[in-house]
Design a protein that fits this description.
About 20% of the residues lie in helices and about 20% in strands. It is α/β, with parallel strands linked by helices. The protein has a domain of about 100 residues: Sandwich (Immunoglobulin-like), CATH 2.60.40. It starts with 5 loop residues before the first helix and ends with a helix. The structure holds copper (II) ion (CU). GO terms for molecular function: electron transfer activity; metal ion binding. It holds the Pfam family Cu_bind_like. It comes from Dioscorea cayennensis subsp. rotundata (White Guinea yam). This is Uclacyanin-3-like.
């Protein structure tokens, strides 16, 4: 019976990592209302695929209508893609690109109840080329699995790479002193 190898556990961890989505309550404590500056609310925020927008409002006073870019600009209600009016609307940002939301009540859109969000892909895209990061901190295997008693179920982590020092122009005496210091440092790190 094959248990979950550490490699597979790491792979699962990597796959599960992008699932950490962020819920953004539109307007924060001011919610989805008249008199809120949503440009200010948007500043500094970045939205990525998997995040959610949460519109909280009184369904008697407001709604959330998704529109296209042109209708967003003109506050037109002629081509509404979808209207939500449950008072607690969660919009899943599943695709990259811009999404446009307005309130279709009266003239609320032209009074500022409009929100454009730009959704980007995964933010954590490390530069390719280094498949194995130098920091080799192997996470413990997830609990819940069967206790692995196999002899090769867990391999010890590889030793840290030696510190690389550039070319130093010094007298032999100082170099030997420096070398001895580095040796002591290395022994201290390993021990
Ligand atoms: Cu409204």
């Amino acid at each position: 019976m094959a248990g979950i190898t550490p490699f597979l556990a790491l792979l699962l961890l990597l796959v599960a990592a992008p699932a950490l989505a962020t819920n953004y309550t539109v307007g924060d404590s001011q919610q989805w209302n008249l008199g809120v500056n949503y440009s200010t609310w948007l500043s500094g925020k970045t939205f990525k695929v998997g995040d959610n927008l949460v519109f909280i409002y009184s369904s008697a006073s407001h709604d959330v209508a998704e529109v296209n870019k042109a209708d967003y600009g003109s506050c037109s209600k002629n081509n509404i893609i979808k209207t939500y009016n449950d008072g607690n609307t969660i919009i899943a940002l599943n695709t990259t690109g811009s999404r446009y939301f307005i309130c279709s009540f009266s003239d609320h859109c032209s009074k500022g109840m409009k929100l454009e969000v730009s959704v980007s892909g995964s933010t954590s895209t490390p530069p390719s080329g280094s498949p194995s990061p130098p920091s080799s901190s192997s996470p413990p295997p997830p609990s819940g699995g069967s206790p692995a008693n196999g002899p090769s179920s867990q391999s010890p982590p590889p030793p840290p790479p030696p510190p690389s020092n550039g070319a130093i122009n010094m007298s032999p005496c100082k170099i030997s002193t420096l070398f001895f210091g580095l040796l002591v440092l290395c022994v201290g790190l390993i021990a």
